[in-house]
Amino acid sequence: MLVDSPPRAWLQRSYELPLLERLGARIAGLRVVEIGCGRGAGAELLLQRWGAAHVTAVDLDPVMVQRARRRLARFGSRVDVRVGDACALPVADAAVDAVVDFAVVHHVPVWREAVAEAVRVLRPGGQLVFEEVTRHALQRWSYRTFLEHPKVDRFSAEEFVEALGELGLSLPVPAVTRFFGDFVLGVAVKPAAASPGPL
Question: Model pTM greater than 0.70?
Answer without folding.
Answer: yes
